[in-house]
Amino acid sequence: MDYRTAFRLDGKVALVTGAARGLGREIARALAAVGAKVAVSDIIDDGARATVEWLRASGADARGFVHDVTDETQWQQTIAGTIEALGGLDILVNNAGVESGALLAECTVEDFHRIQDVNVTGTFLGCKHAIRAMSPGGAAGRGGAIVNLSSAAGMIGVIAHSAYGASKGAVRALTKAAAVECGRLGVGVRVNSLHPGLILTAMGEQLLDGLVRLGLAPDRKQAQAALLALHPIGRFGEPADVAAAVIYLASDAARWVTGAELSVDGGVVAA
User: Fold this and answer.
1) pTM for this entry
2) Could you tell me which residue ranges the Ketoreductase domain spans (predicted)?
């Protein structure tokens, strides 16, 4: 292995879902910074376009797609569009997701289903159609890497996040099944999951506000202090912390890594 280039993604094509803002946007920026061509997708049309413009301003080759990850036809169209526009598909980052805080006894079945649909069905469809495209004889056909965004909440219990935790636990298990299947079938596709702690993106801020709304913290300052105390490293994460881990899992540096769960959480799960 040439360690000087092991983390480079020159000549690779990546698709990042949920990339209109926050974590997805930073992941797209990171992949482009190490040489990948990047397709970004999001249900928010204006946000996807803004990310593409931002990437292109830095010299990246980027395309954008409006994409509801719960819709199988849109998955097929987005992957086909990525391959046509950028010349292949080597990396998929299943980042799109939703979160909604509610005590288990108060969570509506509609909210539970919505969270599972986006976080689990969306990830399943991404894996399904990326594996089809990346496998020998597929539209891209040169193997690849899939990185699924799970969460620390998919590994430990988090108050008022039973539906979200259930969805991210499912992503963790789905990742392992997909990794074993791809390995046994010899299709050349690696599949791994990332498990972030609290990142203060819009979704992270929503979690803090939810604790106050549910009466689990008297105010936002104390909600933030309580959650910070869960992180032994002493700070919340930044999008770049997760994006750097995505680069590793997508690159040849991780060529013998599949079915793994990588915690990028400041020590939350270890504590």
Assistant:
1) 0.96
2) 12-202
The catalytic residues are 164
Does residue 158 share a domain with residue 73?
A: yes
- The position carrying tokens 């106050």 is 212
Q: Is residue 4 part of a domain?
A: no
Question: Alpha-carbon distance 132 to 144, whole Å?
Answer: 11
Rg of the chain's alpha carbons, rounded to an integer?
A: 18
- Taking only the tens place, the pLDDT of each residue in 57-115 is 999 999 999 999 999 999 999 999 999 999 999 999 999 999 988 999 999 999 999 99
Nearest by Cα to 146 from 68, 249, 28, 242: 249
Rounded to an integer, what distance in angstroms lies between the CA atom of residue 23 and that of residue 32?
14
2 assigned to some structural domain: no
pLDDT in tens, 192-251: 999 999 998 878 788 888 888 989 899 989 988 988 999 999 999 999 999 999 999 999
- Residue 41, judged by CB atoms within 10 A of its CB (0-12, 13-18, 19+), counts as buried
- Can you give the residue range of the structural domain that contains 212? 198-236
- Please, which contacts does 178-183 make with residues 24 or more away whose CB atoms are closer than 8 Å? 178/127, 178/131, 178/146, 179/258, 179/259, 179/260, 180/259, 182/131, 182/258, 183/258, 183/259
Q: How many domains does the chain have?
A: 2
91 with 106, same domain: the answer is: yes
Q: Running DSSP on this structure, what letter comes out for residue 101? A: -
